[in-house]
Amino acid sequence: MPPRMNNPSLVVPDALQPLLDLSKVIGGTGVPQRTLDLVRLRVSQINGRLYTLPADLGKAVEADDRLPQVADWRAASCFSDAERAALALAESTTEISGQEDPVPDAVWEDAERHFKEQELAALVLHISLVNLWNRVNVSTRQVPADWR
């Protein structure tokens, strides 16, 4: 299906830079880039917005063969406890429909054990930003892309 319109962040040009700036701020908070990449990949998988690994992760796949295992991260033994906590938080924060308490205390507390407050805040913002891009792209039928 062709896109319904140009990407809204390009149609409303003043919207794009703040989103890119937020992504840059998140990247500077101390959360490992690899963790942010894993979260971005998992959120996009959940939202059905990832048909292949994003181009910027392509080179990383050569160095990190864990990326193709992200969809089944619970069964894979190759992720650190902190990465697992971030992935669980990403799933809970993304899959909120029909949930009385989408982010259970156990998920939140596990994330708190592995991340300082600023890092945890950055993870929440990152998960939300990836969801924002996914939803913008879904509603306007954009081809899945990396807008980081």
Total DSSP E strands: 0
The percent of residues in helical segments reads 55-70%
Please report the number of helical segments.
Answer: 7
- Domain module tally: 1
The CATH topology name reads: AhpD-like
What do we call the CATH homologous superfamily? AhpD-like
Distance between the termini: 24 Å
Proportion of beta-strand residues: under 5%
Class based on secondary structure composition and strand pairing: mainly alpha
CATH architecture: Up-down Bundle
* Succession of helices and strands: HHHHHHH
Largest sheet: none
Mean pLDDT: 90
Which descriptor suits the 3D outline? globular
- The top-level CATH class is Mainly Alpha
Q: Poorly predicted ranges (pLDDT <50, ≥5 residues)?
A: none
Query: Could you tell me the radius of gyration in angstroms?
Result: 15 Å
Structure description:
It is built from seven helices and no strands. By secondary structure, it is mainly α. Helix 2 (13-27) packs antiparallel against helix 7 (117-139), helix 3 packs parallel to helix 5 and helix 5 crosses helix 7 (117-139).
